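Q: I'm a student working through a structural biology exercise. My instructor gave each of us a protein and asked us to get a predicted structure, then write a short paragraph describing it. Mine is Prepilin peptidase. I'm not confident about reading structure output yet, so if you can add a plain explanation after the tokens, that would really help. Here is the sequence I was given:
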Amino acid sequence: MNVDAFGVVVLFVLGLLIGSFTNVLIWRLPRGENIAFPPSHCPNCDHPLSPLDLVPVVSWAALGGKCRYCKAPISPRYPIIELISGVAYAAIALLFPLSSFGTGVIGLCLLFTILLAASVIDFETYTIPDELTLPGTVIGLIFGAVNGAALSPLPHFEAALRGALMGAGVLVAISLLGGWVLRRFRERLYPELPIGYQQIALALFGGVLFGGLWGSWWTALAGGAALGVISTVVNAAARRVIRIPELLTLGGSLLALAFFSARGSISLLTGLQGGLAAAGAISLLAGLYWWIGSRNDTADDDDAPGDPTAMGFGDVKLAAVIGAFLGFERLLVALAVAVVVGAVLGLIQRFTGGENKLKFGPYLAIGAVVALLWGAAIIDAYTAYLGL
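A: Happy to help. First, here is the predicted structure for Prepilin peptidase. I'll explain a few features afterward.
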């Protein structure tokens, strides 16, 4: 057995084991439970599970889908998730042989695990835990720094950073503009303190201006993000929200892009990239602040008022993960596939009387898998069609 065939077998077994851990993530993260303690136990009788109860797929089948101790039924989702994980890991090893792509293959496997856990949790709870997306983005950047090379399936660090920031930026820009339209262009009633959508919109505006005027992605990122940080510091010092009109930030961003389009495609492109990168950076900073803050906030704010949004913030952070692991171009492929799949399944739900609330995370995950497997070919075909 050569090294690549051996790698397929090893990653299949590893995928089964990681699939078992993925079930732990799916169950515990939405409930705010520690993923390590207490050890695995039956959710019905709380009896600790022995190693014989935890063999992926085999234990469930041997026990007839029931707990050994209280005979309560065990959901078939557990072996299904384990099998999906094992098959996916083996498929990744088959398509990206270890002898050619090295440890970058492990990065792709971790991405799949994040996507799988996020999809199931989003499907069941309409939320995507920060414990998956924010560390996942950092892991993607680390793999880009360590494994990003010509023969790696992962982007190099700078491309991974662009992918993470601009991936989050695309989704949050859709959320900002869509929410503005849903509010009929009225200002937010419930701006966040000290950092939130207002600071993200300001960063978007600053990034568009700096990028279009100076033509530098790094200048646009630094300038736009600095405006968002300054606004946050001012809010924190004042201990109240200093309002920034969206007519200025969002309207100004659209006007600036229209102006730069008249100057030429390069100014328009750098302005757009700069705005998305800066908005993405402040989005991740806001996500980190909300995540840390929520650990110390025991109040139940489920009924707190909020403004209408066009895109969940968990989707924004999931896009950052995908961008960090795959790069911005393949993130765009993932987003396009997600929109098409979501539209088709949404129509099916509507005509079959299903629920109307859209869970975008699973569609974005499907798009990411398509982008991983065929993203490069899709991008090459599209650029060839445009004659680029």
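A: Here are two points you could use in your paragraph. DSSP finds 14 helices and no strands in the chain. The first helix runs from residue 3 to 28. It's a good idea to check both against the output above yourself.
Q: Great, thank you!
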